[in-house]
Amino acid sequence: MFERYRSHYPQSFHVNITVALFPNDKVIAIPYPINHPQQTVMDVNFSSDGNITDHGAVIIIEHGKTARIEATISVKPFKPIFPQADLAFQSAGGADHMYLEPDQFIHSKHPAILAEVKKINLKQRPLQILEHIYNHCLDQLQYGNPVPGLYTTTEALALDSVDCGGFSTYLAAMVQACGIPVRLVSGFWAGYKHNDMHAWIEALLPDGTWWPMDPSVEWLRLRRRSAKHGGFGQLGSDRIVINIGTNHVIKYQSKDYPVGMLQLPMILTTTGDTQYLQVETTITCTRL
C-alpha cells in the first residue's frame, strides 16, 4: 500500500543520465539537475570520453561520443499552507517581473487567451483566480501526441491534443495574462520503470510561494490513465527538476546560444543555434 503513496513523502534518488553515440565532430550541451524549492542536489558528477566543461545548468562536451551525468538528489513533495499563501495580489517587481513577459512558447497576448481572461473576475484572491484558470485548462484541452520539444500556447489552442508541455504553456499564458508571474518547470519522472520527460508550471503568490500546477497529470488521473501525484497545488516527490523558465542563454566560445527550454541534450551549431540531439538518452533513478 505504501508503494502507491510513496510520492507523498520525501525521497532520495541516485540519478544516472547517459547520452550515447553522438557525433564527435559536434559540440554537445547536456542539461543537468538543479536545486529547486522541492529539490536538493547533494552531489553531481560528469564523465565522458571527450572534453567536459561545466557551464552551470549544462555541461559542454567536445570531441566525444558518450557522456554521463550522475547525481544524488533529495526530493520533497509540495505541501501547501493555504492561509499564508492566499493573500491579496500585488504587482510583481524585480527579477520576478521577467515571468510576466510572453516568449516563444508562452503566448499570453494571444487574442483567444485575452478573450478568456476578460471573463475572469481579477479582483478575486490569487488562488481563486489560479483555480478558475486551472479548471478551465482541464476542460479545454485533451491529452495526447507527446513530442520531445515543447508545444506553444498557440499550438495548444489549435491542435486536437497536446502533451504535458502543451497543457503547461496554455495554462501559463492564462496565468500571465492575469498579471501573475509564472514559470515553466522541466524535468523527468523519477522512481518508475520509464522515467519520461515531464513539464509543469509554478505561479508566484504574494508571499513568495511558487504555487505548482500540473494539469496534464490530473487530466490523466481523472480518466484513470495515471495514478501519479500532481495537480492544483499538488506536487509529488516522484520527479526530478532539470531547469525552470523558457528563456536561457548558453555561452560558449564568446558566443551566445539562445535556448527556449533546458531539458534535452542538444547540439550547438556553428551558426549560433541549437538543435535537439537525436540519440538515445537513458535516465535511471534508483531510490536510496
Describe this structure in words.
The chain is 19% helix and 34% strand. By secondary structure, it is α+β, with helices and mostly antiparallel strands. It has 2 domains: 2-77 and 243-287, Immunoglobulin-like; 82-237, C8orf32 fold (Roll). It has a 5-stranded antiparallel sheet, with no helix packed on it. It has a 4-stranded antiparallel sheet with strand order 3-6-1-17, with no helix packed on it. A 4-stranded antiparallel sheet has the order 9-8-7-12, with helices on one face. β8 and β9 form a beta hairpin. α2 (111-117) crosses α5 (164-177) and α3 packs across α5. The longest helix is centred in the middle third of the chain and has 15 residues, at 126-140. The protein is globular, with a radius of gyration of 19 Å. The relative contact order is 0.21. The mean pLDDT is 92.
